[in-house]
Design brief:
The complex is a heterodimer. Chain A is of the alpha/beta class. Chain A has 22 helices and 20 strands. Chain A starts with a helix and ends with a helix. The chains are: A alpha/beta, B mainly alpha.
């Protein structure tokens, strides 16, 4: 499946991939993939984990591990088959013709060498031998990518810079030798949303200015549609659908592309809304489930003016500065903020993992401060946490049955038979077959693991579940399944959720009310509709603008003009 | 940075002194609780032919008629001023006995350390860059080296190189060639853990994303290795080298015996069999000083080699 031929004839193809298949030993992971990128054009490969998108990127860059992976087919750069070239002839193309921006900026630079020392390697590709000229060029490009103090960055070690700054450095090093094509593998998925937008804007601008083509690898359809001229949708190593972005995005023809599109939170803000309103009706109608024991009139969680100070390196940092929020029973409240906003600290204070310096936390009307450990422990039993990353939050040596049973053992609930029964019920509630109980986490997918983590939280029948970025480590389609499950559980069990996230589009789908946190302060809070339609604080507005495709995607004609302008 | 580093260096040096003092006290206590009154047994041995006056003098010198704690303080005070006492067997000053034996052992241990490092580096880099089958063979060398006892290696080397090939003679154990083979004997088992650490960290570093990104920048394998991989993969080995010094000190006793060299190993052996408490105390304390000093150097070097090491944390630890 190639892009339609009319497009290709309009300008010379820079990169042509024809019938590319890649196998690790006997296991084929990419099957007969074809696409092409015209000069100055950008193309996005979209797919979920395991779709083969990164493998294709590495094959084009010839960075697949030697002897482990075999690539067949044709990858032509300017008409030259790069797969067939001997290493000696391919190496001069690296950096000069083909640039690479990796996924995780924190690990993409050598930790024991300065930025400057590594930048000289990129500058050397220009053929410049005079170190002072090279240094000047490096400082220029560092300034060009928007780094405020290039000389300081030049002398820094990677660990002294933030993730966003490192990604700017990497982009600078990639564009410095003026390659014809940049392959960017999830260049912003490790970054905060506002930083992501700045980086993508900067990359788009540089690309236009320097006439560089882009092959963007991403799992995020919204980013792909916003940033690329054409899309290739991959699933299990095969092309599902391809074509100009606006076409694929506006009217996907395959089921898979349609479901991907349906799972983008920004496009469907009301996806879970209907389910939740039925829940509220059910509540108001008095047909509450028996799980709701004492119908106290006040809020289920009430955090008032909580302050927490950490001292790091002689400096005091206010992680929480008078944070207040409250959540009514059966509702979902979201804490939104970027890294360092204090949302994690707020959660740790609520769970009793840290003690606040000031303020009060009430759970089900009971204050947690000034109580004995045993009392707080009993309160905490009604508060359970589902952690961000199910790949690290489950003990890999334990079987699922034991993982889910652990809180029961901890709190000494019931007899052995009763515990086993409750584990079965919890697994059933999260939609896992009972035989999963005898498996270990390694044999489960990411979505299944997160279901196990949810079952572990539910097994003690809590009133409140704290969801700390519960889907950020998962693919979009898996995320949709988990959110649906959470919404169903809330409806059935009358659970109260505290949903912690940096993703406003997601928050809009699941939450009733929101607190926006920045540097330990609540800058804005209120009902979700209010915040989204009438944001008051500039920071909230910046967060909202950073959502890819916050507005409806550009109409076809505008898209075409854009593509022409860049070509 | 510099004031942080000074603070860190002073803290570490202070800790090192404490460790040496504790080692001294522990050795003293262990020797004094051993069954048998070592010193008086030796003194009363008629073979020594000491007069009652001599014995009284020695008893007074070591404070043998006083409680153990007084003896300890007396001995510790002398140790701190560099006074190591006299051998009970030969009546020679301990400092002279140790001083005579030290150069031979230092030569042996230093050359063994250098050889071990060379072996480890060659093995690790072979494991990384040789083609498949050869790399697998090279990778198994460290476990082979570890499983062969020191004395077997020594005897095989002597049999083969001294008796068959006549590369050296066992009658002149201090000749350069004989020293070389003794050092190889000592180096082989010691190089194994070092090679394993190097192999593991090279494997780790070459799979890091930064290595991939550097490759995408068009670096050749040789340049990638020299500019990116050597330093980070050597960092864990620095601490390992410091630990290895301990093994060298222990291994030298056996190696010196096999090759018939006179060194600290021989001194220790004689002192143990002859219950020569002052000599034993001095040698064990000196070993502790050497071991602690080498580890101190490795500790002080690590923040200079690795910019990520946070000094404040290290001081607090």
């Amino acid at each position: 499946m190639t892009l339609n031929t009319k497009d290709r004839n309009m300008s010379a193809d820079l990169l042509t991939v024809q019938g590319l298949s890649i196998a690790y030993g006997p296991t084929a992971v990419v099957h007969d993939v074809s696409f092409s990128v015209a000069k100055g054009e950008s193309l996005a490969l979209i797919g979920e984990s395991g779709s083969g998108k990164s493998t294709i990127a590495k094959a084009i860059l010839r960075l697949l591990p030697h002897g482990e992976a075999t690539a067949t087919g044709r990858v032509a750069l300017n008409g030259q088959d790069v797969l067939a070239l001997p290493e000696k002839h391919f190496r001069p193309l690296r950096g000069r013709e083909l640039g690479f921006i990796p996924q995780d900026p924190a690990s993409a630079l050598n930790p024991v060498r300065t930025i400057g020392a590594q930048a000289h390697e990129a500058a050397a590709l220009l053929g410049e031998t005079d170190p002072t000229v090279r240094r000047a060029k490096i400082l220029d490009v560092l300034e060009q990518v928007g780094l405020p103090d290039p000389a300081r960055v030049y002398d820094s070690y990677p660990h002294q810079l933030s993730g966003g700054m490192l990604q700017r450095v990497l982009i600078a090093l990639t564009v410095l030798p003026r390659p014809a094509l940049i392959v960017a593998d999830e260049p912003t998925s490790a970054l905060d949303v506002t930083v992501q937008k700045l980086i993508l804007d900067m990359l788009t601008e540089l690309r236009r200015e320097l006439d560089i083509s882009l092959l963007l690898i991403t799992h995020d359809l919204a980013i792909a549609a916003e940033r690329a001229d054409s899309l290739v949708v991959l699933k299990d190593g095969s092309v599902q659908e391809s074509g100009p972005s606006f076409e694929v995005f506006a009217s996907p023809t395959t089921d898979y592309a349609r479901s991907l599109q349906a799972d983008v939170p920004a496009l469907h803000p009301d996806r879970y809304r209907n389910q939740r309103s039925t829940l509220r009706e059910a509540h108001d109608g008095g047909s509450r489930t028996e799980a709701v024991s004492s119908p106290s009139p006040g809020p289920q969680i009430d955090v008032q003016g909580v302050t927490k100070r950490f001292s790091a390196g002689g400096k005091d940092v206010l992680a929480c500065d008078g944070v207040s929020f409250s959540v009514d029973r059966g509702r979902t409240h979201a804490l939104v903020g970027e890294s360092g906003s204090g949302k994690t600290t707020a959660v740790r204070l609520l769970l009793g993992l840290e003690q606040p310096d000031g303020g009060d936390i009430k759970v089900a009307g009971q204050s947690t401060s000034g109580r004995s450990r045993a009392d707080v422990r009993e309160i905490r039993r009604h508060l359970q946490l589902v952690y961000q990353n199910p790949f690290t939050s489950l003990d890999p040596t334990w079987r699922v049955g034991r993982i889910v049973r652990e809180p029961l053992d901890q709190f000494g609930v019931g007899t052995k038979a009763e515990r086993a029964q409750r584990v079965r019920e919890a697994l059933e509630a999260v939609g896992l077959p009972s035989e999963v109980a005898s498996r270990r986490p390694a044999h489960l997918s990411g979505g299944q693991r997160q279901r196990v983590a949810i079952a572990r939280a539910l097994v003690v029948r809590p009133d409140v579940v704290v969801l700390d970025e519960p889907t950020s480590a998962l693919d979009v389609s898996v995320q949709a399944g988990i959110l649906e499950l959470l919404s169903k559980l809330q409806r059935e069990l009358g659970l109260t959720y505290l949903f912690v996230s940096h993703d406003l589009a997601l928050v809009r789908q699941v939450a009733d009310s929101v607190s926006v946190l920045r540097r330990g302060l609540v800058v804005e809070d209120g009902p979700v509709e209010e915040i989204f339609h009438r944001p008051q604080h500039p920071y909230t507005r910046a967060l909202l603008e950073a959502i890819p495709l916050a507005s409806v995607p550009a109409e076809p004609t505008a898209g075409k003009q854009l593509a022409k302008a860049t070509a | 940075m510099t004031s942080d580093y000074k603070r860190f260096a002073l803290t570490r040096a202070g800790q090192a002194v404490v460790v040496v003092l504790l080692a001294y006290v522990l050795t003293f206590l262990v020797i004094s609780v051993l069954p048998g009154d070592a010193i008086t047994n030796t003194l009363r041995d008629p073979q020594h032919g000491l007069s009652e006056e001599d014995i009284q003098r020695i008893v007074a010198f070591y404070g043998l008629d006083q409680p153990v704690i007084v003896q300890l303080l007396l001995s510790l005070g002398r140790f701190l001023t560099g006074e190591l006492g006299f051998s009970l067997q030969s009546n020679l000053p301990v400092s002279q006995i140790v001083g005579d034996a030290l150069p031979s052992t230092l030569t042996l241990a230093t050359s063994a350390l250098l050889i071990a490092i060379v072996f480890a580096v060659v093995i690790a880099y072979g494991a990384q860059y040789l083609p498949g089958k050869w790399a697998a063979i090279v990778r198994s060398i460290p476990s082979f080296f570890l499983s062969v006892p020191n004395f077997v290696i020594g005897l095989v080397l002597i049999e083969f190189f001294a008796f068959r090939l006549h590369s050296f003679t066992t009658t002149d154990p201090n000749s350069p060639v004989a020293t070389l083979f003794a050092a190889i004997t000592l180096a082989i088992p010691v190089s194994a853990p070092l090679a394993e650490v190097l192999i593991a960290s090279l494997d780790h570093e070459s799979r890091q994303e930064y290595a991939l990104v550097a490759r995408s920048r068009g670096l050749s394998e040789a340049k990638l290795f020299a500019k990116h991989l050597v330093k980070p993969s050597a960092l864990p080995s620095v601490a390992m080298v410091a630990l290895i010094v301990g093994e060298l000190l222990g291994g030298s006793v056996i190696t010196e015996t096999i090759f018939g060299r006179d060194g600290i190993g021989t001194v220790v052996q004689k002192a143990v069999t002859g219950e020569d408490q002052p000599v034993l105390q001095a040698v064990v304390s000196l070993s502790a000083v050497v071991f602690v000093a080498v580890n101190l150097v490795a500790d002080l070097a690590s923040p200079l080699l690795d910019p990520r090491v946070k000094l404040r944390e290290k001081v607090g630890a």
